C-alpha cells in the first residue's frame, strides 16, 4: 500500500531548483509526494484549486498564478485534508516568522532557512512549543548547519538519549573555510589575505558583498542553532562575541568594490597573526564555539596545531567537533557544508523522514 | 496526547544494560515506552501475561521466568495488539535469523547485532523485502557500524535522495584502530606489534582471543553492510579479500596465550612494512574499502600520508570517508566506534525514530 503526503515548495533558486530536481527523480517504495503548491519566485506560484499535483519536470514553463499570501497558503494547504509538508527553500524572514502558524495548523516544515532558528529565542520557543501540541506539524532543519552534513539530527539524538554535550567547535562557513584554508597552511605561504578574498569573490564563493561573509554573522547564526539544541538558550546571534574580519575603517565604505580596493591596506595585521601562529606550529581557522560547561558562545579566529583535523581541511569544507560525556575524543563530522546539491539533499532527506511519520 | 509503544528487550550484557539504563532515564515529550518483555540472560526473562510493564530500575533483582522461544515471543508480543519494537542487544545469530518473522508479524527492530545484515545476502533480502510489506515492522541498525556514530542513517539518506556513492573507506574496528594508532605514527617509534597486541588485550580492548579481532572478519562484516546499503550486493563477508593479521603459522595454535607468546617471532615482517611506509611519509592503518566504480570490496592494511585524516586518528576511534558524486571531497565521520554507552545510544536513537513512526 502506497502512503502519500502533500508537499508545498517555496523557492526555486539555486537550492530550490536542485531540490525540485531531486524530488522529481525520487524513487521511494510505498511513499508518494504530491506537490500541490510551488512558488517558483516571490511573485509566481503553480497550484490548482482542486489540488491536482504540479508537474515538477515542467514547472518552469507552466503558466503561473500570483503567489498566495502566507495565511491564504495555510488555508489552501489545510483545505486538502491531507498530511502536508511545507518546504521553505528561501532565506526569507517573513516566511520563517510564520512557521508557528503553519505548525499549529498541522503543516510540517523541512527547510534550510536559518532565520527561524537563529533569530530571537522567542521565535525558537514559539516553533518548538507549537510542535509539541496535539495535531501539530513536525519541524526538521538539518540543512541549516553544514548543509546536508549529518549534524543537527545526530546532535539532537545525543541530547535526547541523555548525553551531556560539553563543547561544540567547528568551521561553519564554506566561504571562510576556503579563505582560511588558502591563507593559513602547515606549509609556509606568503599569499595576502586580501588577494584570497578577491579570488574567492571572483570564483563566486562569497556573497555579492564579501563583507556579508566576513562579518561572521552567518557563522553566529549556525552556532546559535547548535547551542540551543544542546540546551543553552542563546538570546540571539548578536548576544555573544563575534569577531568580524572587516577592518573597522572599512565597515561603512559604500561598495563591495571599494572595500576590496582598500582591503590590502589591512593585510599586515592578519599576516602577523598568521606568521605568529605558523612559528608556533599552528594555523588560523575561523571557528564557532559553544562551551556548555562555562555557558559561553563565540565566533573567532582560532589557532590549531598542524596535526589537528581543522588544519587539514580541504577546499570549502565544513567541520564540527562535538565533545560530550560519551565522546571525550570528539565526534567529528566533515565535508561540503555549502552548495545546492548537498543542501537540497539534506532538505529532501528531512522531507522523507517527515513523510515516513505522517503519510497516510 | 502521549503516544506509546511496547518494547521487548533481549540482552542485558555490557551494551544491553547501558541501553536499559538510558531507556529508563529517557525523557521524551508525548512518547512513552512500555517494556513488556526483558530477557536478562539467555535463560531468564521478565514479563507479565497481562503485559504490565517491567520495571527497568529493578530488573536485575526481580524474580524471572524462563525466556520465551522466538515463536512464542512473537505470539506474546503480537497478542498485545500494540505497536512493538524488539531491541536485540545480543550478537546472536539465531535471533538475527528470526528477524524476517518478527518483521512480517509487524514487530519493528532496533539492534546493534551485525549478524542479520552481514551474513548471507539472502538474509538481508529476506529482511528488507519483509519490511516493505503492508503492516510489516521497521528495521533500524545504526549501531551495527561505528556504534553510535551517524553512518548508516546518513549513508541511507544519500542513496535514497539520489546521490551516487563512489567509494567508502574507513577504520571500523576500535581494537585495530588502537593497535595501528599505537604502532604506526607520524613520529618515529620502535614499539613492537606483538607488544601492542598484548597491551591491548590486558586493557580489555580485544576479544578474549585477540585472533578474533586480528582475523579481520568483524571489519569484513561492517564493510558488507555499507556495501549493501550503497547498492553493491555482497554475497557474504567471506566472499571478498580480507587480509588477516594472524600469521599463517599461528592460526591453529591452541590457546590465546600460546598465540601471544609466539607472536613476537613474526614482528619483523610488519615492522618492515611500517618502516617502508614511514620512509615514504606514510602510516599503516587497517581499513575496509568499498569501491562502487570497480565493484570491489576489501579489508586490508592501507598506507596513508601523515596529513591524511586517518593518520591523526586517536585512541580507538573509528572513521569513515564516503566519496560520492555530491561529496568529491569525502564526507568524513569520526569518533568512538565501540563502547557500551555509544552503542546503546545508537540503538536508543533508532528506537525513538521507530516510535515516532509507529506509536499510537
From TrEMBL, chains A, B:
It comes from Lodderomyces beijingensis. This is Homoserine dehydrogenase. Pathway: Amino-acid biosynthesis; L-threonine biosynthesis; L-threonine from L-aspartate: step 3/5; Amino-acid biosynthesis; L-methionine biosynthesis via de novo pathway; L-homoserine from L-aspartate: step 3/3. Gene3D superfamilies: Dihydrodipicolinate Reductase, domain 2 (3.30.360.10), NAD(P)-binding Rossmann-like Domain (3.40.50.720). Keywords: Amino-acid biosynthesis, Methionine biosynthesis, NADP, Oxidoreductase, Threonine biosynthesis. It holds the Pfam family Homoserine_dh. Transmembrane segments: none annotated. Its EC number is 1.1.1.3. Belongs to the homoserine dehydrogenase family.
Amino acid at each position: 500500500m502506497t502512503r502519500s503526503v502533500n508537499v508545498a515548495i517555496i523557492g526555486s533558486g539555486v537550492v530550490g531548483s536542485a531540490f525540485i530536481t531531486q524530488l522529481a527523480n525520487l524513487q521511494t517504495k510505498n511513499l508518494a509526494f504530491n506537490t500541490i503548491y510551488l512558488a517558483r519566485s516571490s511573485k509566481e506560484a503553480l497550484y490548482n484549486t482542486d489540488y491536482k499535483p504540479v508537474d515538477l519536470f515542467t514547472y518552469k514553463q507552466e503558466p503561473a498564478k500570483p503567489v498566495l499570501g502566507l495565511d491564504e497558503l495555510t488555508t489552501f494547504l489545510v483545505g486538502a485534508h491531507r498530511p502536508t509538508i511545507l518546504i521553505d527553500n528561501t532565506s526569507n524572514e517573513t516566511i520563517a516568522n510564520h512557521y508557528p502558524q503553519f505548525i499549529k495548523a498541522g503543516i510540517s516544515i523541512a527547510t534550510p532557512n536559518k532565520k527561524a532558528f537563529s533569530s530571537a529565542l522567542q521565535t525558537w520557543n514559539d516553533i518548538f512549543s507549537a510542535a509539541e501540541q496535539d495535531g501539530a506539524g513536525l519541524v526538521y532543519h538539518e540543512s541549516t548547519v553544514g548543509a546536508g552534513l549529518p549534524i543537527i539530527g545526530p546532535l539532537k539524538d545525543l541530547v535526547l538519549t541523555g548525553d551531556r554535550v560539553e563543547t561544540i567547535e567547528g568551521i561553519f562557513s564554506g566561504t571562510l573555510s576556503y579563505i582560511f584554508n588558502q591563507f593559513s597552511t602547515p606549509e609556509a605561504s606568503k599569499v595576502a589575505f586580501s588577494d584570497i578574498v578577491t579570488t574567492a569573490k571572483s570564483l563566486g564563493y562569497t556573497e555579492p558583498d564579501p563583507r556579508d561573509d566576513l562579518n561572521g554573522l552567518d557563522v553566529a547564526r549556525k552556532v546559535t542553532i547548535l547551542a540551543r539544541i544542546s540546551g543553552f538558550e542563546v538570546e540571539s546571534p548578536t548576544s555573544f562575541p563575534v569577531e568580524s574580519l572587516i577592518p573597522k575603517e572599512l565597515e561603512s565604505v559604500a561598495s563591495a568594490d571599494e572595500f576590496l580596493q582598500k582591503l590590502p591596506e589591512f593585510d599586515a595585521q592578519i599576516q602577523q597573526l598568521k606568521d605568529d601562529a605558523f612559528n608556533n606550529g599552528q594555523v588560523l581557522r575561523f571557528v564557532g564555539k559553544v562551551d556548555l560547561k562555562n555557558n559561553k558562545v563565540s565566533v573567532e579566529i582560532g589557532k590549531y596545531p598542524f596535526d589537528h583535523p581543522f588544519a587539514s581541511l580541504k577546499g570549502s569544507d565544513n567541520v564540527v567537533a562535538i565533545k560530550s560525556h560519551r565522546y571525550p575524543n570528539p565526534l567529528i563530522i566533515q565535508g561540503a557544508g555549502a552548495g545546492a546539491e548537498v543542501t537540497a539533499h539534506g532538505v529532501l532527506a528531512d522531507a522523507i523522514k517527515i513523510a515516513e511519520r505522517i503519510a497516510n
